[in-house]
Sequence to fold (410 residues):
Amino acid sequence: MKKLVALLVFLFIMAISYDALAHPGRTDANGGHTCRTNCEKWGLETGEYHYHNGGESSNSESTVEDTTETSTSYDANDKDCEDFSSYDEMVEYWNANGYSATNDPERLDGWGNKVDDGIPCEAPSGYDTSKINGSPEQIAAKQAEQDKQVGEDDGYAAGLEAGYQDNSKDPDPSGSDAYKEAYTEAFDKGWVKGNDQLKEEMKAADEAGYALGKKQDKLEIPSNYTSNSSVKKSFEDAFNKGVKKRVEETKKKYSDKGYEDGEKDERNTPKDVDDMYIKAYEEGYQKGQEVLKESYLDQGYEAAFTMLKYEEPKLDKDKYVEWYKEGFETNQEIEKIAKTAYNAGLEGNTYEVPAEYKKAEIVFKHHYDRGYKEYEKEQQETRQQVGTGAGVVILAWLGRRFYVARKMVS
Fold:
């Protein structure tokens, strides 16, 4: 156990000694090189050749000669880490030469000993190592950028389709964080674009479907409106609206024609058309007939104000005469006028036609006269009765006077 501890202590001391003696720079095939920069810092003279990693002592002349012969491949232009004024300058040199963890001929990575982690000369704390060619961080950054681009492309395409189909706006991508973030953001943009496209196509389908429905009864959907169910439905719904509108307009046309013919009393039932249009014509015709009848009813009604007795008019058709007579007989105002006029005459009022009865003056005058005649008859009878009574009184008086006179004579 004590031997093991002693061995570990020895190895630890050797490691410390190695670090104290090591300095940056590329070594040759024999594990040595010539010091050219900051030599005094390492206890060497400028131009002095020495070994690293257990190479032979610089005091051995034979070794120096052998090493010199085997060092003919060494390039005096090779750079050491201390040859750069700043770490950014070193990174620029590293990148410009296309160096990486697997391509480091000057052995800048690993302080001249071996390939380490792809970070040359060990970066200062906090340095953005993604700027270093071939570094793990740069590789990760490039991968993230690639994932982001793929995520944007995939997300936009998926969103475009989802929006066009009017599906859910909640994507659930899988992959790296960069991919998922880019996918989600691009999905939203694609969804809006796709949904706008859907709305535009639905609007176009609506207009086209309606126009077709206004022209024909058979539904024929163009191929450019069949790929999307919403667009197809828009076309179909609009087509049905167009058909309905056309039918309503056609029915109105036949109804108006029927109404016009009904007023003229000239039936011209349409032929070779759908039954619903014939029905519309007949309904319009009946309404026109009702208006025509109403005109004759009004004529008869108004005639009642000017006639003391119904007089049959000379009209083209018997039904016109019937309507005329019906209107005449339904005039209930005449009875009221006649009664008012008769009472005015019966009371002996001065003849005067009220303004509201001017149109029926003939009727008013007739019934006023009737009433006035009764009034005069009553007055005459009264006068007669008064005259008879007065004669009786006179005769009584005369008789009394005659009696008194006789008494006086006797």
Q: What stands out?
A: The chain has four domains: 23-129, 142-229, 265-325, 332-396. Confidence is low (pLDDT under 50) at residues 15-22, 57-74, 403-410.
